[in-house]
Specification:
Part of the RFC clamp loader complex which loads the PCNA sliding clamp onto DNA. The protein is an alpha/beta fold. About 60% of the residues lie in helices and about 10% in strands. A 5-stranded parallel beta sheet has the order 2-3-4-1-5. It has a two-stranded parallel sheet with strand order 6-7.
Amino acid sequence: MEGNSTIWIEKYRPRSLEDMVGQRQIVERLSSYVRSGSLPHLLFTGPAGVGKTTAAVALAKEFFGETWQMNFRELNASDERGIDVVRNQIKQFARTSPLGGATFKILFLDEADALTSDAQAALRRTMENYAQSCRFILSCNYSSKIIDPIQSRCAIYRFNRLGEGAVGEQVHRVAEAEGLSITDDAVEAIAYIAEGDMRKALNALQGAAILSDRIDAGMIYETTSTARPEEIAELLDLSVRGDFAGAQGALRTLLRDRGIAPGELIGQCFRALTKAEMDTALKVAYIDHIGEADFRISEGADAEIQMEAMIALFVLSAQKAA
Ligand SMILES: Nc1ncnc2c1ncn2[C@@H]1O[C@H](COP(=O)(O)OP(=O)(O)OP(=O)(O)O)[C@@H](O)[C@H]1O
């Protein structure tokens, strides 16, 4: 079956701006460039998997039609971060004339924030010198890492994490196209796991579809090694009630039996806490304990010991607050 051999994020990458889900304001503004036939340099910022590359490719297709591949080039700045990439590849592409009757070319530079500041300074000059023949679309996670003179030459587009509705819509589309049946709970589970990242969402769907063409929430949590939100809520609830043995048992089940990575589990506890309705002082203490454990694990401390220590501190803080 084709679906098993192709990566769905590529197979179902929207081919036009109109086919993208979410990001409506951005899609509308980008479409108006196509209608007017003119394009400034653009800076796309935002988290992974929300449509920055997709929008750049779709924009090029809509501007150039059949000749889009001749007039569009994608480079990833994290492959080569120094000034040479600007001097060689970028300048080389920018200076040559557009083809097939196009009035300019588009260079899409992914992970532009990986460029060194020297490389960014050279890029700024290239953007100025070849603005007639080439428009730049720079993409990055944080615009603060892009030097001001580049930012001021670009129209800035901030891509947000996709909402649960948008993720669900695309998951339904792909499931239908692949002939899968999927429960509402499974769609919800995918949206929970994805945290607004469509790449994560479609990979979770494809991972579960290897097991069966009838997908439920359990399969999604299982194949992505993620705890269910109810399990996290129970862990927190046991510790708030001061039941250390119970919380410790729940934690060990998740870590040892279910094989959930400590980093993932800490992230899930953090997300659950930020939304939880509980005493503010206790919530503050819990978030502080999470930050401490997260930091220590990142420094190389034993993850399981740190997680248990975190639970112990949860219980102590709850007892103090009682
Ligand atoms: N808004 C969207 N609508 C539909 N599908 C999307 C959308 N955003 C992302 N996708 C899907 O997720 C995949 C990854 O998205 P994309 O490459 O555009 O991410 P990105 O924002 O450029 O992330 P990165 O910063 O990691 O490069 C796409 O191939 C597409 O299948």
